[in-house]
């Protein structure tokens, strides 16, 4: 009699984890270059004593396999900030953090006190030689070509490094719109960079709200089934107890 409860609980646990993913998507709906995520599920079968019979069956549980990232490009928004760079198409900026190289598409950059180009967390943005990009104090007119070449009133400075990977799904989100991976980065020879624009999150809040509502309804439906099953078991125990005492 407990099999029904176990199967229902596996469904509830999966729905709870799915709700966490949807809630995280909604919380990052305004995070630049954030990529929405979605849970992947599969049927997990467990043999029973009747599995070897001709009409025997197996118990079917719900198992969450992994999280699938939506790698589609988010909408580009004009900011007119000369240090905002949007990547159009494949690619990631290379960022040097205290934990090593990380990768991201959030191109909201700024200059620190030393004139170095850094991201919003203060980590250095790498150039094509894997070196930080530093501007002289008298360089105020910063221009970036579509291929990532950086120039000022004093001439060419360097070129932004843009890399790609064989499998974007294998990249691990480490927060702040940055990713880590064990894959070897491959330089994008012809990147498309738009200066003065930002890539927004590709999360659609209305869609995520609809998903959340459906998840809550499914969760409540499973809970109602568990309550009914519990009542059925109590009635069965009471009936058996009365039959033995009669």
If you had to describe this structure to a student in words, what would you say it looks like?
With 246 residues, this protein is an alpha+beta fold. The chain folds into two domains: 1-71 and 203-227, no CATH class; 76-199, no CATH class. The chain has two helices and 18 strands. A hairpin with a 5-residue loop joins strand 7 and strand 8. It starts with a helix and ends with a helix. The model has no long low-confidence stretch (mean pLDDT 89).
Gist of the model:
The protein folds into 2 domains: 96 residues, no CATH class; 124 residues, no CATH class.
Distance between the termini: 24 Å
Which structural class fits the helix and strand makeup?
Answer: alpha+beta
The sequence of SSEs as H and E is HEEEEEEEEEEEEEEEEEEH
Summarize model confidence as the mean pLDDT.
89
Tally of helical segments: 2
DSSP strand count:
18
Shape: elongated
Radius of gyration: 27 Å
Give the oligomeric state of the chains in this entry, treating copies of one chain as homo and distinct chains as hetero: single chain
How many domains comprise the coordinates?
2
Note the main sheet.
5 strands, antiparallel
Q: Proportion of β residues?
A: 25-35%
Helix content, binned percent: 25-40%
Taking pLDDT < 50 over at least 5 consecutive residues as the criterion, the unreliable ranges are none
Pfam families: Flg_bb_rod (PF00460), Flg_bbr_C (PF06429), LlgE_F_G_D1 (PF22692)
Main location: other
Subcellular location: Bacterial flagellum basal body
Keywords: Bacterial flagellum, Cell projection, Cilium, Flagellum
